[in-house]
């Protein structure tokens, strides 16, 4: 039986008040550390630019200003319709963040995992590496649900 179509993301529905980002990213996960280390290794101007681009897309998402169907910035994770992927191209890196939009918290977005996309020799290897990152986001979603994603 095919998966049902994904729900429309809150990030594509204009908001009168910005949605609230709950932080539930494991800062000790290797992928998160890799991204943090890369950003910290940049020269101050480049670091400021990268952080500004990250904040700009997060702000667009929170205000519901991402255009529906713009998969260059946002796409549903088809394996689990409760998860969405935000995308950045930052200098030479493709960065991905996975978040949830829990139905019982209509004003919240929950950051679950962030990483630099790993480009492998084949598309199958790249997909497998990304699937591991998505699995981490799914794990964080399930693990944090009982605490309402409070670290």
Could you describe the 3D structure shown?
The chain is α+β, with helices and mostly antiparallel strands. The protein is built from three helices and five strands. It has a five-stranded mixed sheet, sandwiched between helices. A hairpin with a 2-residue loop joins strand 3 and strand 4. The longest helix is centred in the last third of the chain and has 23 residues. The chain is globular, with a radius of gyration of 15 Å. The model has no long low-confidence stretch (mean pLDDT 92).
Keywords:
single chain, 151 residues, alpha+beta, five-stranded mixed β-sheet, 3 helices
Sheet having the most strands: 5 strands, mixed
Fraction of residues in β-strands: 15-25%
Number of distinct helices: 3
Unreliable stretches, pLDDT < 50, 5 or more residues? Answer: none
The best one-word shape is globular
Number of strands: 5
Helix content: 25-40%
Supply Rg.
15 Å
- Which sequence of SSEs, written as H and E, runs from N to C? EHHEEEEH
Strand order of the largest sheet: 1-5-4-3-2
Query: What is the terminal-to-terminal distance?
Result: 36 Å
Helix/strand/pairing class, anyone?
A: alpha+beta
């Amino acid at each position: 039986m095919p998966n049902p179509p994904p729900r429309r993301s809150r990030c594509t529905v204009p908001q009168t008040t910005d949605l609230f980002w709950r932080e539930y990213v494991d800062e000790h996960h290797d992928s998160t550390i890799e991204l943090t280390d890369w950003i910290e290794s940049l020269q101050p101007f480049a670091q400021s630019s990268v952080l500004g681009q990250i904040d700009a897309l997060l702000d667009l998402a929170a205000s519901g200003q991402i255009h529906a169907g713009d998969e260059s910035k946002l796409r549903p994770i088809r394996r689990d319709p409760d998860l969405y992927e935000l995308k950045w191209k930052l200098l030479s890196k493709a960065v991905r963040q996975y978040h949830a939009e829990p139905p019982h918290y209509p004003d919240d977005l929950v950051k679950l995992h962030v990483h630099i996309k790993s480009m492998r020799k084949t598309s199958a290897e790249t997909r497998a590496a990304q699937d591991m990152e998505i699995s981490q986001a799914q794990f964080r979603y399930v693990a944090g649900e009982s605490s309402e994603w409070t670290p």
